[in-house]
Design brief:
The complex is a heterodimer of chains A (166) and B (283). Chain A is an all-alpha fold. Chain A has six helices and no strands. With 283 residues, chain B is an alpha+beta fold. The chains are: A mainly alpha (166), B alpha+beta (283). At the A-B interface, helix 3 and helix 4 of A face helix 2 and helix 3 of B.
């Protein structure tokens, strides 16, 4: 069976997210600054969603989220829920349908981190009243750090589409 | 049937939404379940999906570790084999020296130990290179022996090494005597066929006799053990006889030898001098 270069590319994407999940729980804690860790998993996952669209992202997010739920001590299903919603949302900006430029991608990554953390916070029943403080104190530094990481990752894998000149 | 087909079409069209609804529903159901169900779900997920995956990865890790360890062990084994070969060589030299020591006091002249550096691996005779040269006192025409018997003679010597002609070389001739009857003969070799002694019909040489060097010519000191006569054959002319000899020192197995340092004034070198002069002239 011969795989075309595009298929190989897609296959690499499907492998990259679980690898990022492994790196997230093994290597990334070393890169924490003042307790703030970047989310390599989300950076790679958002890139995956841009490239593959909503449907694969939903299932990939659900799978990775379930694995995280199994290993974490929090409420099971919280990560799965958060990752699924992020995958679906970012997947709507599939690069076959919409052109999203580099800087906008980095911005969407930051929003995706906040969305993920918000859903996770609510699913874990930590209380809606604590949500703004949680987002501000915990999620925002993490989102900024992740955006920095994503800026590098997105520069390595630029969009396949070009901006439309009207 | 139509309704089913319609449902299938709708499902294919809206599979994103169906997937989203399914996964969100699962996520919400799990997260809102009582702790006992959550624990059961976690155990089931770990046992059915994650544990087998971890097991496979663990086995692969073990396999990789074993392969790496095997490579390390192979490398270590190769090093040990090389070290062992070196030590075995040293032990062999020590054994040869120990075996030779009692013999040394019976020799009239001092000896120099040497190793055979190169030799013809296919032919019995030929020229061998020894790792002792003029700096050790080795010179042309000196006899070379081993712990078992005569090996050959030095053809030429230079600094660091010397050339030796074995008794299995077709150009080598050695005057020998039967230790029993003191009858003389000429030891020679036929290429590829072994070592022989040629003697007169009047000489009393029989199968089973031990041959030693005669000492005539000055190259080989008298009385060095050479070999044993195994078979006597009559020549057609019935003037000379020929006998096959098994050398005491098997030329195939010799590794360490001793050169008898004989003073130059006691050595007579007509043959080899003429031989070398003729080869020099030819070149």
């Amino acid at each position: 069976m011969n795989l075309s270069s595009l298929e190989k590319h897609d296959l690499a994407g499907y492998i990259a997210v679980p690898l990022a999940l492994l790196a997230q729980v093994s290597i990334v804690p070393v890169a924490s600054i003042y307790g703030v860790q970047p989310s390599l998993l989300l950076a790679v996952f958002v890139l995956f969603a841009f490239r593959n669209g909503a449907l694969p992202s939903i299932w990939m997010g659900f799978f990775c989220g379930t694995v995280l739920d199994t290993y974490s001590s929090g409420t099971p299903g919280a990560f799965a829920l958060a990752m699924t919603v992020v995958g679906y949302s970012v997947g709507q900006l599939h690069e076959k349908k919409v052109h999203v430029g580099y800087s906008l991608r980095v911005g969407i990554l930051g929003i995706a981190v906040l969305l993920h953390d918000g859903i996770w916070h609510l699913a874990c029943r930590h209380g809606a009243s604590h949500l703004p403080l949680f987002l501000l104190r915990t999620s925002l530094p993490c989102a900024l750090y992740t955006m920095l990481l994503g800026a590098i990752a997105f520069a390595i894998r630029p969009p396949r589409t070009q901006a439309r000149t009207w | 049937m139509l309704i089913l087909r319609w449902l299938a079409d709708q499902a294919l069209r809206g599979r994103e939404l169906i997937s989203l609804a399914l996964t969100i529903g699962l996520g919400l159901w799990i997260s809102s379940s009582p702790p006992q169900i959550q624990e059961k779900w976690r155990t089931a997920w770990t046992g059915t999906v994650l544990y087998p995956v971890q097991s496979v990865i663990g086995r692969m890790q073990v396999r990789w570790d074993l392969e790496r360890e095997l490579d390390d062990l192979r490398a270590a084994n190769a090093r040990l084999v090389a070290a062992n070969a070196k030590l075995a060589e040293v032990a062999r030299i020590r054994d040869d020296l120990r075996e030779f020591e009692p013999m040394r006091k019976h020799l009239e002249y001092p000896v120099v130990g040497s190793r055979v550096v190169t030799r013809d691996p296919l032919r019995l005779g030929g020229i061998w290179i020894l790792d002792a040269g003029t700096e050790s006192g080795v010179g042309e025409g000196m006899a070379v022996i081993s712990t078992d018997g005569l090996v050959g003679r030095i053809l030429s010597a230079s600094h660091g090494h010397s050339q030796m002609q074995t008794i299995g070389d077709p150009d080598c001739r050695v005057s020998v005597l039967s230790a029993r009857s003191r009858s003389p003969g000429i030891l020679h070799s036929i290429e590829g066929a072994g070592v022989f002694v040629e003697f007169s019909v009047t000489s009393d040489i029989r199968a089973g006799d031990t041959l030693v060097t005669w000492g005539a010519g000055g190259i080989f000191p008298r009385g060095l053990p050479v070999g044993k006569v195994v078979e006597v054959r009559k020549m057609p002319a019935n003037v000379l006889r020929n006998a096959r000899v098994v050398p005491f020192q098997d030329p195939w197995t010799v590794r360490n030898v001793f050169v008898i340092i004989r003073p130059p004034e006691l050595r007579v070198l007509p043959d080899s001098s003429i031989y070398f002069q003729s080869t020099r002239d030819a070149t």
